[in-house]
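Preliminary data (for renewal application), pyridoxal-5'-phosphate complex.
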Amino acid sequence: MKSTEQLAVTKNISGNGNGFDPEVIRRDFPIFKRKINGRRLIYLDSAATTQKPNAVIDVIDRYYKFQNANVHRGLHTLAEEATTAFEATRDKVAKFIGGVKREEIIYTRNATEAINLVAQSWGQANIKKGDRIVITQMEHHANLVPWIVLSRKTGAELVYIPITPDGFLDLKDIGKIISANTKMVALTQMSNVLGTINPVEDIIDLAHKRGAVTLVDGAQSVPHLPIDVRAMDADFLAFSAHKMLGPTGLGFLYGKEEILNNMEPVVFGGEMISEVKFDYADWNALPYKFEAGTPHIAGAIAFGSALDYLNALGMENIRNHEKGLIAYALEKMKELDFIKIYGPLDSERRGGGVSFNDKDIHPHDLATFLDMMGIAVRAGHHCAQPLTRLFGVNATTRASFYIYNTINDIDALITGLKEARRYFKYE
Amino acid sequence: MSEPLDDLYRDILMEHFRYPRGRNKLEHVHLHNEGQNPVCGDEIEIALELEGEKVKDIYVSCMGCAISVASGSMLAEIIKGKSLEEVKKIAEVIKSMLKGKESRNELELGDLEALKGVRKFPVRIKCALLSWTTLIDAILAKEASKKAQISSSE
Ligand SMILES: Cc1ncc(COP(=O)(O)O)c(C=O)c1O
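Predicted structure:
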């Protein structure tokens, strides 16, 4: 199901060495034809959700026009086609994160649901009073609240790996924090606020030595970095399709087969059973036992196309492109004495986007001002309220990048930041 | 820069933002509440000193954007000397004004008229309402506890 746009990109890449050209990529995204408040759209909020290429949008359209049927339950042509396409994406996802078994990939609504599934199913069954759950101070609420709730329900203690003032995990006491009674270590691979890339392999290694199970929140890392979950050796990995060109309402949980096999489902109904009598039900095999009810079929099929698109660009190339953007953004922002940057300043050890504040203008006012210039940034606590508080603020402004962003976009942001000072009469 | 922006950040509003009223701590606090804008984490603290049913003095401390700080400052200015019933009425008028309903109100809104520009920025309405909802919640809680007291002593 290759669209012509997608082929254009593929050609462009193979055409010249590292021919990663965001200007060409942009043409695949219809939203960039839109004007925002009369200006060219400069989208710097991809950490919240990315824009979608025609290759993805067209597949959704085509599915509902020509393929629409439920999966796994019909014997007719349409049902078979839908099922095949739906399951093909599962294979692509398994391959994309480093070549795992298809049974280890579970469709969810989003990363949040994937993490909740682990906390509710694995957590409730394996965690008790006297145990320890370890997370970090830089978690998104999605990888924070489920563990707060679990620790409250079970009486297990919740311990945080702290962070340093420059935005890295403080691993000084990690040997003590991940103690012998630690049962779960859950952490983000890339912070959605600071951009920090965490050394998940080392932490997972230590956790396993202590007999703990590990979960990596890949919501920010899987879209931006080459991922090999087997080399990483995480027991669980959660991520969302919408942050990597795919539709909203679709996410994934990867889990090691032997662990998933020993877990109970948390949602019950159709699809997830192998046999039901009036007083009895037996669970279906992996991955279906965790997939009760009709899934987001159109979204899943379209996400297959998103993965094709990313693969055509190459995750290494995407990472390099973004590293360049981040390095440039940090350099330009450092020149502005009224801007404070939160998080690491070394583009090798970070990704995502840049969180910052103007020393006088509140992030809300700044975001509203920039929006009037067509520049979309995020302002707030970015669903990581304890973390922003650590930095002594309630809110930050965040500019985050993806494959379609250019140096021009960053220049526009820098101009916008300077103009905001003039507008609010600080210059 | 642009008209809607100038309409949002009117001069009166920016003046309140730069020099917010009601920043002096009160000696006697009869009503107190803290509020938070869940969208951005902005925080506000409000305290009232009452004389009977009337507001004698007010303290507002807001860690927030220009809109929320200015709105809190205007609140401090306008409710001084008003009865709690009047305060509730003003809050209602502000709410409907921000939601775009032209209410025929007999109230003198003064500087608060300047909040009209917020209407074109729906995501910012919460900022403008933060101080008002925080105060109204406190008044309602006070009334509820009074009622509870009366009914339990009956
Ligand atoms: C690090 C991180 N984890 C989890 C999530 C939650 O993703 P979703 O809302 O798609 O479940 C996000 C999204 O903002 C995130 O940035």
